[in-house]
Amino acid sequence: MHSLWKCDWRRLHGLRSRAEGSIEEFVDGHRGRRCRYRGLAKTHVQHVLTALAINVERLSLQEPADGPYRPRPPTAFQQYLDKRGLPRPLWWRQGN
């Protein structure tokens, strides 16, 4: 029972840390703490446009699918586990 709770906590904390990182990027990286315009509708438009700009910026930083990036080869420990049919331990942000 205790390990099930621990896995749920890790999964939820991983999701929360990603969301909080996005909020922090909006607030600190794109001056999201103060709005330039008055009124709810104008504020909403500014937030939507800023979110679009953040997504475009993130997409521009991604490697192309046919690019030179290759995943890292498995470590000696991972090869050891694979050879013996043992499950690999997951990093806590991966969930599951």
Polypeptide structure, described:
The structure is a single chain. This protein has 96 residues and is mainly α. It has a domain at 1-51. The chain has 3 helices and no strands. It has helices at residues 2-29, 40-61, 76-83. The longest helix is centred in the N-terminal third of the chain and has 28 residues, at 2-29. It is elongated, with a radius of gyration of 20 Å. It starts with a helix and ends in a 13-residue tail after the last helix.
- Count of DSSP-assigned helices: 3
- Proportion in β-strands: under 5%
Low-confidence stretches: none
Largest sheet entry: none
Number of strands: 0
How much helical structure, as a percent, in the residues? 55-70%
Overall pLDDT metric: 80
* Helix-strand makeup class: mainly alpha
Order of helices and strands: HHH
Query: What is the gyration radius calculated from CA atoms?
Result: 20 Å
> Could you give the distance between the termini?
16 Å
Overall geometry comes to elongated
Question: Quick gist of this model?
Answer:
This protein is mainly α and 96 residues long. The protein is built from three helices and no strands. It starts with a helix and ends in a 13-residue tail after the last helix.
Question: Key terms for this structure?
Answer:
mainly alpha, 3 helices, 96 residues, 0% strand
Helix/strand layout:
Layout: H1 2-29, H2 40-61, H3 76-83
